[in-house]
Amino acid sequence: MKQILVIDDDAQLCFLMKQILESSGFAVIMASDGREGLEILSRQTVDLVITDIFMPEKEGIETITDIRAKFPDLKIVAVSGGGRSGSIEYLSMAQRLGASKTLLKPFSKDELIQVLVDLGV
């Protein structure tokens, strides 16, 4: 079973993604920020990371950069719903810094699963 790490400070969205992914046959680990996500990655192997961009403690761009440095082949999906400057700019930056794919919030179950299919997960 493929394992996915979901990093998002929105507990409700994190739980919703967990339900969608588990119902599609994935095992899911959740983290509330990039720092916690990196701690999990230091102890556990995963097949994919889904990370929000705007979070406390360690935000998504920094998290993506750190993951890419330590785990260069790990697939990363960056998600964002905005922020003050708009999410499109940040999602583009995330992709330039190593995100494999991006998703703009809100996204549908089908969009989430399609990204995983596109990445071969």
CATH class, named: Alpha Beta
Element-level helix/strand string: EHEHEHEHEH
Termini separation = 10 Å
How many individual domains?
A: 1
Unreliable stretches, pLDDT < 50, 5 or more residues?
none
- CATH architecture annotation name: 3-Layer(aba) Sandwich
CATH superfamily: Response regulator
Average pLDDT level: 93
The proportion of residues forming helix, as a percent range, comes to 40-55%
Helix/strand/pairing category: alpha/beta
CATH topology: Rossmann fold
Overall shape: it is globular
Structure write-up:
This protein is of the alpha/beta class. The protein has a single domain (3-118), classed as Rossmann fold, CATH 3.40.50. Helix content is 45%, strand content 21%. The protein contains five helices and five strands; from the N terminus they run E-H-E-H-E-H-E-H-E-H. Strands 2-1-3-4-5 form a five-stranded parallel sheet, with helices on both faces. The longest helix has 13 residues, at 11-23. The radius of gyration is 13 Å and the shape is globular. The termini are close together.
Compose a concise summary of this entry.
The protein has 121 residues and is α/β, with parallel strands linked by helices. It has helices at 11-23, 34-43, 60-70, 87-96, 109-118, and strands spanning 3-7, 27-31, 48-52, 75-80, 101-104.
